[in-house]
């Protein structure tokens, strides 16, 4: 019996490294499999909708001290900006339900520290920041097109629209605004842009839309222009950053998908070093910014990136290493080597900040 137990232990010990290797190789597939809801989307069994009249339903607002007020060394926050930014955060929900609850403390903490702090803060030099929480869709809704996933994304979009309407009614007062988003936020931001902002007079208040890290296509934008210069207003910036050797990993798809007989959709790519949608290469960058868990002010890292648009993808080359903690490295590996999705704002943080300020200035000047 003792010998049998020893044999079992030795067998487990021998198989453990094999299991770890397999788990590492297929980490992305494992993450998606674990996150996948095991039941169909049920519209009668969704989390309660947010009440945007309550401060708890917002990750950031201008009257509160919050993650959007995060400071970067040597960079000043605007004291009394004349423009607003409405920011839609990326996925911070890792559960297996179709949609997250907005009162989930763990999800909200991840949103504030991992999204609002490192992304929405890029706009605190030009704008008052409004960042709603919403019932995020499960991450698998964005990697595999399905009716259930589309319904979950639809619920998230309903919340984004409700939050924006609350902002219009209670906070906007005719002020110009920027729409900013990343990843899942870009999905629901595109819907907000197309259904609420673009069709009517609100389009005249739109400074620009930064819909980064989503499958934003020229076809989906319709008559909304892609930004072609650094100071153009009323236009859309979008890009998906990948390294030159990236060959595959977790990628987002349009959900719902385009009709099967439709011509292939063309991804939008605006180079955040030149603010043009052409394929001209550029190198430099005003400053990449990366936070850590210490709470210290990060220092911008200028001249950190080279980038060029190539067939709808922003090909990025780095001139240094990106500081990443253990969990961030796991995320990077799951996304695929050279997939810079998680740091698309960080790589161009100071460029995004300066550009938002430039477009806001140009917009205000055009209004007389």
UniProtKB/TrEMBL annotation:
Name by which UniProt lists this protein: DUF3089 domain-containing protein
Entry-linked InterPro entries: AB_hydrolase_fold, DUF3089
Origin species: Nannocystis exedens
Upper classification of the organism: Bacteria, Pseudomonadati, Myxococcota, Polyangia, Nannocystales
Keyword Flavoprotein: no
Domain of life: Bacteria
Family matches, as Pfam families: DUF3089
Membrane-spanning ranges: 7-27
Keyword Nucleotide-binding on entry: no
Chain intervals for the UniProt region annotation (Disordered): 43-65
Key words of the record: Membrane, Transmembrane, Transmembrane helix
């Amino acid at each position: 019996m003792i010998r049998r137990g020893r044999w079992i232990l030795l067998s487990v010990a021998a198989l453990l490294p094999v299991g770890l290797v397999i788990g590492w190789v297929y980490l992305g597939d494992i993450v998606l499999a674990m996150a996948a809801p095991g039941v169909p989307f049920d519209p009668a069994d969704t989390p309660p909708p947010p009440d945007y009249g309550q401060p708890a339903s917002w990750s950031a607002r201008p009257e509160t001290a919050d993650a959007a007020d995060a400071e970067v060394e040597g960079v000043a926050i605007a004291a009394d900006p004349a423009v607003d930014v409405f920011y839609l955060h990326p996925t911070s929900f890792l559960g297996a339900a179709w949609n997250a609850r907005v009162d989930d403390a763990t999800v909200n903490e991840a949103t504030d520290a991992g999204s609002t702090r490192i992304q929405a803060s890029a706009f605190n030099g030009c704008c008052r920041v409004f960042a709603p929480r919403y019932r995020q869709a499960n991450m698998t809704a964005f990697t595999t097109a399905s009716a259930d996933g589309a319904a979950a994304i639809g619920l998230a979009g309903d919340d984004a629209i409700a939050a924006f309407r609350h902002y219009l009614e209670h906070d906007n007062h005719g002020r110009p605004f920027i729409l900013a988003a990343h990843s899942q936020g870009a999905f629901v931001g595109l819907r907000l842009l197309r259904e609420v902002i673009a069709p009517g007079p609100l389009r005249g208040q739109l400074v620009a839309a930064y819909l980064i890290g989503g499958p934003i296509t020229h076809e989906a934008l319709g008559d909304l222009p892609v930004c072609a210069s650094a100071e153009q207003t009323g236009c859309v910036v979008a890009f998906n950053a990948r390294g030159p050797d990236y060959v595959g990993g977790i990628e987002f798809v349009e959900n719902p998908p385009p009709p099967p007989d439709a011509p292939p959709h063309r991804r939008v790519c605006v180079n955040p070093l030149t603010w043009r949608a052409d394929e001209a290469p550029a190198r430099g960058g005003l400053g990449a910014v990366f936070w850590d868990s210490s709470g210290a002010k990060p220092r911008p890292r200028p001249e950190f990136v080279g980038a060029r648009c190539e067939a709808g993808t922003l090909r990025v080359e780095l001139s240094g290493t990106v500081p990443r903690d253990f969990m961030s490295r796991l995320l990077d590996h799951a996304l695929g080597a050279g997939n810079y999705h998680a740091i698309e704002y960080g790589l161009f943080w100071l460029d995004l900040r300066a550009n938002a300020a430039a477009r806001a200035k140009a917009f205000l000047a055009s209004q007389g």
